[in-house]
Amino acid sequence: MKVILLGEIKGKGGEGDVVDVAQGYAENYLFPKKLAVAATKGNLKQLEERRNNIEKREAVRIADANALKESIDGKSVTVDAKVGDEGVLFGSVTASMVADAIKADLGVEVDRKRVELGKPIKVAGAHEVPVALYREIRATVTVLVGVTAEEAVEEPEAEETAEEAVAEVETEAAAE
After folding, report:
1. Which of 100, 113, 136, 155 has its CA 20 to 30 A from that of 11?
2. How far is the C-alpha of 58 from the C-alpha of 63, rounded, in Å?
3. What CATH fold (topology level) applies to the domain 72-175?
4. Which residues form the Ribosomal protein L9 domain (predicted)?
């Protein structure tokens, strides 16, 4: 069934897009929530008349998303969590905790549904977390869990020295 979207729907499209969806999805979800209308001749004609306004709103949304990306991309936020032995957390860090940390540390409001965490963080350290801002515009935030920024910088160096030691042992074994 062809419908005209009245707002952004993740995985389907944005305002004014004509998409093909299952009839049950349209009738039971999109239409009652006023997220879409049927793509009839009359509705398509109205869409063409509103196309200019939709493009202006779309340009504003993209500009806002790019400005938000500039303000949070590459930054780091700290999430306080109780850390046990060997860096394992008591509990886990969720997307809503990351969104709250972004608001507290960077002063930027981000919807928790936009934080693409996948699985909750259960290990202390620095974790790269993508944030979907609008359609394909994404920013990456470093989430520090149970560590400070200085400790997070030191950790990769320790991993590199361990990797170098393994490489040295392998080259010595190959030489023999």
Report:
1. 100
2. 9
3. Ribosomal Protein L9; domain 2 (3.10.430)
4. 13-40
Enter the tokens of residue 27.
């009738």
- Which residue in the block uniquely carries the two structure tokens 């009652």? 32
CATH of domain 2-69: 3.40.5.10
The dihedral built from the CA positions of residue 38, 43, 48 and 53, taken in this order, carries a sign that is: negative
pLDDT at 24: 96
- What the block records as the tokens of 79 is 């999430």
Cα 33–Cα 69–Cα 75 angle in degrees, nearest 5: 125
Confidence of residue 171 (pLDDT cuts 50, 70, 90): low
- What would the two tokens of residue 71 be? 């303000």
Side by side, which strands form the sheet with 18-20?
Answer: 18-20, 2-5, 36-38
